[in-house]
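Let's practice the habit of predicting before peeking. Look at the sequence and jot down your guess about where helices and strands might fall. Then scroll down.
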Amino acid sequence: MIEIRNVTKSFGKFRVLDDCTASVAKGSVVVVCGPSGSGKSTLIRCINGLERIDSGEIVVDGISVSAPGTDLNALRARVGMVFQSFELFPHRTVLENLDLAQVRVLKRDRRAASERSMVLLERVGLTDQASKYPAALSGGQQQRIAIARALAMDPVAMLFDEPTSALDPEMISEVLAVMTKLAEAGMTMVSPARRGRPALSAGCE
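Done guessing? Here is the structure:
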């Protein structure tokens, strides 16, 4: 599903990834462990082209991320990304946040998009929050909404950029519960985790 081959990435003179090679099989859960600043988030962002690699190759579902002519927008629609800071649109309701990309990118009509959004809100336990704005929700609720938004694009894999690092301890378990259900359903997932912080029940790879 995801092949990382001899990837190198530097920021100026600082080499963050050095000849990195890894393989993520379809339906597997990989947790990338390491201390802060070790390149975990950079690796995640390279997988869907948010960061350009200096050398090597990353292939996602048969598509070479850095190859000339690769449609990165189309690729990102197939690879869900959940950021640690949620990245929800503050001026749109929860339902509108989930509908937007479905309508604009997948070209679903608004009714079909909203029906799909409500199914996903039920999946993450937040159907009663559909008409609220992100500011009215807790951090854990916002992150669950962000996960539902990513799932609305029907991705083949999900990337998580330390999804619990911005949450209070009592909110972490509700997000991890959603992620665990995704893993049990066979979603291919990659997530970084600092050593000593809770991650999915799958071990570090």
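How did you do? The beta strands are 2-11, 14-24, 29-33, 55-60, 63-64, 79-82, 157-160, 188-193.
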